[in-house]
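User: Watch each token:
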Amino acid sequence: MHKINRLQKSHYKAFTLVELLLVVVIIGILAGMLGTRLAGRTQQARIARARADLAGQLLLALDIFEQDTGRYPTASEGLAALMEDPGLEGWNGPYLKTGLKPDPWGTPYAYQPDPDKPGQFSVKSAGPDRQLGTPDDISP
């Protein structure tokens, strides 16, 4: 029978540098493929969150503000009137529990009352490009 000393036994149990590099390269390729697939989903999730913020929190807060004060905020008061008392009788805020947070891209939500139609307004997110008035703007 052949005797194998301890040094030779451990040689058979270890990975070579080439094998380790091959595993690292394969993991890198798989991570790259997964990352590109998830990139589009991240943008979709941000858009969905912006729509939920607009339709859920902001519109509801604006409606409650209007019920308490008898009107919606002016352009100069903006959405800040939901958090800080603009000096109106009946103001019973703050109307947002979590504060006035920016949209998922870090841009403040835009609020603009319609000067021709009292009680009408628009509230939107600038969207992924962070510029208002472009096709990717998000409304409720």
User: Anything to note?
Assistant: Helices lie at 6-13, 17-69. The chain has a mean pLDDT of 84. Strands lie at 110-113, 121-124. The chain is about 45% helix and 5% strand.
